[in-house]
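Worked Example 4.2. Consider the chain below.
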Amino acid sequence: MTAVEEGTRIFVDPDDPVFAGHYPGFPILPGLFVVEHVHAAVRDRLPGKRVSAVQRAKFLRPVFPGDTLTITTEFTDDGDGVRVSAVVSKDDGPVAEIKLRYSA
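Applying the procedure from the previous section yields the following structure tokens:
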């Protein structure tokens, strides 16, 4: 099984408390939150499965308060699990490439 989904959009709330300390005077969204947004975009497609590995997390550019992210995902069945490859983008280009592995 390989399936591609495009267009999950997420607004980065400027009032999120994470921005108070990351970083004062230059707020950016922590990379872990980008990975969590990818997981949130795909978890309903994979009932009964959990993240078993973050196989890759490459951050290309910062994400700022008020940005809108678009997450494009590709699902690949690898026998005993599912690999999810995601590209996270803003209007002006990609900000991250994330690869997660899900298993039962």
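The domain at 2-103 is CATH 3.10.129.10 (Thiol Ester Dehydrase; Chain A). Helices lie at 31-42. Compare this with Example 4.1 before moving on.
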